[in-house]
Amino acid sequence: MTHRMAALLCVLTVGSAAVGAASNGFTSTWKSPEAGPMNFAGRKVAAIAIVGDESLRMSAEEALAREISARGPKAEAAYRLISPSRPCSSTLRARSRSGPA
Question: Do 72 and 42 touch, CB atoms closer than 8 A?
Fold first, then answer.
């Protein structure tokens, strides 16, 4: 009986995922006429992940920073730049110029 329940659960999960994926899409898009490609090669950027679990967020930001850095910019995980007390923007700018603590 447990094998049959597991198979049913698997079918329901796959079916739900297929239905959910099929309903996603854009109804309209907009792009500024002045927008163009940007070159961030050699520039500093912050890799930010918005996740409720702090350890997952840190891992995601590190992975994202590695991927971004592999493509040219100098990426840093945001948790290294932003303290939990949420400093003001001038503090963030100063930290981004000086590098991680």
Answer: yes
Q: Can you give the length of the chain in residues?
A: 101
**Any residues with CB less than 8 A from the CB of 76 and at least 6 apart, and which?**
44, 45, 46, 47, 65, 96, 99, 100
CA-derived radius of gyration, the chain: 21
Q: Give the residue from 74, 73, 79 showing the smallest Cα distance to 60.
A: 79
Q: Please, which residues have CB within 8 angstroms of residue 75's CB and are 6 or more apart in sequence?
A: 44, 45, 46, 47, 64, 65, 66, 67, 68, 69
Tens of pLDDT, residues 26-56: 888 998 999 888 888 989 999 999 988 999 9
